[in-house]
Amino acid sequence: xxxxxxxxxxxxxxxxxxxxxxxxxxxxxxxxxxxxxxxxxxxxxxxxxxxxxxxxxxxxxxxxxxxxxxxxxxxxxxxxxxxxxxxxxxxxxxxxxxxxxxxxxxxxxxxxxxxxxxxxxxxxxxxxxxxxxxxxxxxxxxxxxxxxxxxxxxxxxxxxxxxxxxxxxxxxxxxxxxxxxxxxxxxxxxxxxxxxxxxxxxxxxxxxxxxxxxxxxxxxxxxxxxxxxxxxxxxxxxxxxxx
Length: 243
Fold this sequence. Notes:
Blueprint: E1 2-10, E2 13-18, E3 21-29, H1 32-41, E4 46-51, H2 52-57, H3 63-72, E5 76-80, H4 86-94, E6 99-102, H5 104-108, H6 110-120, E7 125-128, E8 131-132, E9 135-138, E10 143-148, H7 149-158, E11 163-167, H8 180-189, E12 194-198, H9 206-213, E13 217-220, H10 222-225, H11 231-242
Parallel strand pairs: 1-4, 1-13, 4-5, 5-6, 6-7, 7-11, 11-12, 12-13
Antiparallel strand pairs: 1-2, 2-3, 8-9, 9-10
């Protein structure tokens, strides 16, 4: 299972929110590159970078931060937040994103999102299927759509999607543990899925449980920033899973 730390960006700074609520913003570092370099020094190879300004503005905003991290580290970055047009996508990939995550666009403009899958391939496009009460949430989690989570994922698997990031919004940033049951159901009902668990990770012991369920990766945010899980523990986990 891949370990994927998260860096969320508002106004160029590394922040975390609780349940996607911008009013709960807490700044952890003024310099996201510093944070990314710390991750890399601990043997981490992947990064989940979210443009929260972009999610609000409905277009890419913090691509300079992406560019900086991509050029000054070797981290493989998946980038999301506000990607709505072909131009947004070009900017993200030209700025160094290895993969992009599309969430709201997959609900609101499936024709465009499907064209991205067809153009860039399943290795480059991740479906962001974030859920509130098992309905897909959109627009930086400010809206709940009518889409039921599992059928929504199943429909996109038919379109060629391989990677899905699923966040249970009720858990995000709350440090109360991830939605094990939800992830188990998704993996049981969706074949050939590379599921990336996100939201609620609070202790190191949860990581082997997610790996055992069959999650392909897990995104960890606040647990790192609040020192609930140390980079040393993650480094050890990565080394053990490689050996």
